[in-house]
Design a protein that fits this description.
heterodimer; A: alpha/beta; 41% helix; B: alpha+beta; 3 helices; 2 strands; 44% helix; flat
Chain lengths: 271, 89
């Protein structure tokens, strides 16, 4: 059996790719899947921090590609889930340290080891690292913020996914494209200060797989090194939970996309 | 800003401005996706030629590349301004 390869990408930086990769991988693992999450941002490693395993990185992705470590040595087992593993990016090497053949070898190795899902956390931009992260993907999660530059960049990425991937080149059937809208603020949408879910869907011609509301808990989660999906009390965490369920084929209605009037106690004590 | 201004201030519908701008730029970028790199330069040179005869703006020229059963069609359209055409000053 071969692993399903999911790339998390966006074009623009700072929209929530790594936050999404961490929560997606954790959510899939919580659903009982064997999951590896790989940081493709060579030189700017960050997934390890968001996953909370930064002090346990010994070998990285580039070491495996160059044969300096085995896959087994480099995979960091998540402290919360036995079936979740992190492959960190190299912090010292340059971007050219990754090659298409090397990436393919690592992905094949993960398939042989019985992984169900491999989540590839893409670097920003459309250069080599981003290209390699998407090249072998079966599915793509395009992370977009309701903001002009992010929407434009994601359209560019959707175009690249349709043409510059192995599936596209081989004619193996199109890569499944999912649009994930993050940092959504229903109050600002209601005030017509922010593009709505419908606006973004109309402009890009693709419907969303999830909407993650802007939430203070996202920063708190990254501060703590705990993927936000594990924070059951946060709406962002719950929205990521819904998104993972939809990726696994479940139908769930969108939540947290409308303005809710808070009750007095909620306003005083927070939610 | 006085308190009255604050009370009178209406929220700007900046979201609809964003949507309209995005709709146009995304459509334009999609129409030239996968097109040769020389296309923008060609567009500018064509504009220069057209300008010798009619006063038009760069936005009046649109270039579309369409794939039609095995061959590519380059479509160029120029929206001419109202009024009588004549050489630009």
């Amino acid at each position: 059996m071969t692993a399903q390869i999911i790339v998390v990408t966006s074009g623009k930086g700072g929209v929530g790719k790594t936050t999404t990769s961490a929560s997606l991988a954790t959510g899939l693992a919580m659903a009982g899947k064997k999951v590896a999450v790989i940081d493709f941002d060579v030189g700017l490693r960050n997934l390890d921090l968001i996953m909370g395993c930064e002090r346990r990185v010994v070998y990285d992705f580039v070491n495996v590609v160059h044969g300096e470590a085995t896959l087994k040595q480099a995979l960091i087992k998540d402290k919360r889930h036995d079936n979740l593993f992190v492959l960190a990016a190299s912090q010292t090497r340059d971007k050219d340290a990754l090659t298409q053949e090397g990436v393919e070898k690592v992905l094949d190795g993960l398939s042989e080891d019985g992984f169900d899902y491999v989540v590839c956390d893409s670097p920003a931009g459309i250069e080599k690292g981003a290209h390699l992260a998407m090249y072998f993907a079966d599915q793509a999660v395009v992370v977009v913020n309701p903001e002009v530059s992010s929407v434009r960049d994601s359209d560019r990425i959707l175009g690249l996914l349709a043409s510059k991937t192995r599936r596209a080149e081989r004619g193996d059937g199109a890569i499944t494209q999912h649009l994930l809208l993050t940092r959504y603020n229903p109050t600002r949408v209601a005030a017509q200060e922010m593009l709505s879910v419908k606006d973004v869907e109309e402009i890009l011609g693709i419907s969303v797989i999830g909407v993650i509301p802007e939430s203070e808990n996202v920063l708190a989660a990254s501060n703590a090194g705990v993927p936000v999906i594990l924070d059951d009390n946060s709406i962002a965490g719950q929205a990521y939970g819904d998104t993972v369920a939809r990726i696994l084929g479940e139908e769930r209605p969108l939540r947290f996309t409308e303005v809710t009037k808070k009750g007095f106690f909620q306003r005083v004590f927070g939610s | 800003m006085g308190i009255l201004d604050f009370l009178k201030r209406k929220p700007e519908a900046s979201a609809s401005v964003a949507k309209e701008r995005l709709r146009i730029i995304v459509a334009q970028e999609r129409s030239t996706r996968g097109a040769p790199d020389y296309l923008p330069m060609m567009r500018n040179e064509l504009l220069e030629v057209i300008k010798k005869y009619v006063q038009v703006d760069i936005e009046a020229i649109s270039i579309n590349l369409e794939h039609d059963s095995g061959h590519e069609v380059l479509e160029l359209s120029v929206a001419l301004p109202d009024g009588k055409p004549g050489p630009a000053a």
